[in-house]
Amino acid sequence: MDWRQLFYHSMNMFNVVIVSYFFVGNGVYTLLMMVSLVSVWVHNRRLAYQGLDDIRDSVITPPATIIMPAWNEQEIIATSLASILKTDYPSLEVIVVDDGSSDETLQRLITAFKLVKMDLIYRPRIPTKALRGFYLNPRIPNLLVISKENGGKPDALNVGINMCRTPYFCTLDSDCLLEPDALLRLMRPIIRSPINTVASGGIVRILNGCDVKDDRVVKVGLPQGRVERFQVVEYLRSFHFGRAGWDLLGGTLIVSGAFAVFHRESVIETGGFHLDTVTEDMDLIVQLHRWAVHNHRKIKMSFTSDPVCWTECPSSLSNLARQRRRWQMGLFQTLWKNSEMLFNRKFGLLGWLSFPFQLYIEGLGAAVEFLGYFMVPLALGLGIVPPTLFVLFVLLGLVYGGFLSVGAVLLEELTYRRYPKGRDLLTLLIYAVIEHFGYRQVVLFYRFQGLVRFITGFQQWEKVVHVGAAE
Amino acid sequence: MPFLIEHVTEVVFTIVVVVLLGTGTLIGMAIARRQRRERYFQRIDQVRERFGPVATALISERIEYQRGLEALKSISGVDRMHMLEQLLVSKPAPPDQIPILRKACQDLGLVKLWQQEVSGQITPVALMSPQGILRRVSRLHFLVRAKAAENLGIIRHKESWPLLVKALDDSHADVQTVAARALAAIGEPASFPMLLNRLQRVVLDGSDHLSLRTMKSAAVSFPLKQADELLPLLAALNGRLRFQAVDILREMVEREAAREAEFQLDRQNLSPELTELFVTKLCFDENPDARARSALTLSYLLDLRATPALVTLLEDPQWFVRLHAVRSLAKRKFLSQADAIGKRLTDSQWMVREAAARTLMVFGRAGLDQLTRHFLETQDRYSREQVADEMQRAGLLPTLLAQYASEPKGDEVEVFRQLSGMGKTSYLVSTLASSSDKNLRKKFLLDLGAHSDPQIRTWVRQLAARETDLELRTLATSLARQASPEKGGT
Fold first, then answer.
1. pLDDT digit string, tens, across residues B110-119
2. Which of A462, B106, B116, B253 lies 20 to 30 A from A372 at CA?
């Protein structure tokens, strides 16, 4: 075989890989969409008898702690904390961990909540960086602010876990706004489940474009920026049928750490949040699965789509790039670290479907698709692929993505209908269709960069700058 | 291979067309759904606008019952029952309005419909409502059964309790959960043993779909006067059953105690059999969880044997039993047990030490004095740290500083010296710095101004630089110049 033949052969092989990736990936996505359409709709119906008042009033409802790590969040920290303190939950503690901010984050908390420094005992069950001080206001006994040396978000969360007294804790990003009953709703699957539910995740929605009054979202609307609108569709797709679908199949590998409840003792037994990945939330979920399998523990992970946490999404491409590179790099770090799960029968569906899906479709798929944008035209130029087939295939790739995104918008419409204006629905549908003509490719480029950074061993956490997008 | 390529092209083309059609269908469905929902909400709004005030007036007895009922009966359409449900039970009614609401639901035929639905009967009328799809698909019937059970609970329909007890064994866990909740809301005494029976099965059968928390939450809603029904579980051979029963009783007692300031358990509210069981058996139970959870009930018992039993639990080998015992003693009537509680300040488990400190603080000045004495006298570093922790968390330091400034001689200065020696002066110094009491600052400067603690040193230097009172500034300046001679103060 000469070089020319080898080249042609390789091109053919690559095209087969792309076609396989396309069919397998979209096949699983379609399956998830079908499953989610039913499960989210049924869940929405079940809310008619959810009994939130019962959970609120019951003495059996376990107490919980919200742990909020903060690093250089001076603009929003006081507002966020004020909102959290209003959370509707019968027995709630709040721990804010200032991760060595270089701005006025700590000072603003001290001023806003009249905190005084105290020298309390620290009994770390998970090793962390050194603490600088505890800040309390005896008149707000359920609030504790801790200042520590900078060690990253997972380290800050571990400090919170070490100081947490309640059986469950909720991680919450400092730029998030919780709906008043969000924690009650998030705890509901834990309370109602006969199995130890070690993690319960809710939905993260985009705050940009919404009206906020008194630390609450009072009017839901779509953001003005195109980048933000595309993300609204992406989030709907990711949460409504990514997370909901995997939850129903029992293959949850990702729970957004921006807003999730965990069983404290189980987390401590797995060593808390590990510091060696930049997506500590996914890593923790995977660790919990491994711990349960190795220790023969019967556990459950839950995702429910009605507890809502609002977060500001990146409004510029540069911020979006930082976020997506980090997510992709973290995905690979976690999968690489826990590669024993891959096709491991001990992990059942997780090992045979969820994990391979995350690795081959969500992870390596970024590289395949990215390279495909160069290789397929090359194959066309070399006459390996006929022009008609090339055009049809590119079209299929684009319209299938649109089909899935429109499915996510439909799911939202069938259930929660958070965007009340008819115009917003039409806008969402349009963005769902056009998302794959430009935006998808841009995001794909960032994801590919994330993969490159993983391969080259880049470790830095890229911070997304928040600009206060709510109105 | 042109043949193959042609076929692939055809296949891909077909898929593209199908996907495009599918996308179009989904878009159409989304828009149609929006329009349908808008029509639905318009209809609800219309009904609410027209009949909402009537329904409110009817259940708050502001209009004649029969007139209101006739008005509501005039709601027409295939969704009539659904609209009535939306009007009457979609929002919780105040407890005093429940009887009339129940009567209205009964007279409007809603109760009969819900009862039929709970027992799995789907009527033709129900099939025509907007929720009809739920009723047509048998796998979704559980949604209808659960909602009907919920509604019967909302209106506290006593006569439906046998149906709801039956629903505790429904094929779907949702219906079981809602039925348990509804039974708790109705509170029919005869249903309590049945609920406990179901709870027993949940405890014993690990594969049950019903959660233990749900069952316990329902059980503890029943009044304490029904606690005798727990006797078989409290005397059960299975330790887990005894533990759950003790815990249920504990929650019942706690709820009653929260309502009444001087609450006590006597013959009036707890039977002699139960009392006997607690003071002779459950506090010595082989299951430590049962022992631990018995502590709170013991703390309210008027029986003379209760307090000694509780004090015995303070010495239990299991730390969480000691923890529950210490917490249970956090009532002023147990002031005489302060010494026994004080011993737990040196417990090997920090949570017990913490609870002991908090319990002593409940005793007021006497408890605080005991805590202070212990803080000053103990050689146990961990115990001392725990007390220092609690003094800060409870915000006691401003109180101690105020006492120190106003009283000629007390233990306060020794407490401050001890805290300074431990390096726990942040709160102390920030309170001093924000105080406007010159006498306090002077006294503290004289007593501890030369202490080597870095935060005290910083405060003294700040006083030397910024204090407006000349005498104080001079004193602070001279202290600031002094090298700290020895740790421990002047």
1. 999 999 999 9
2. A462
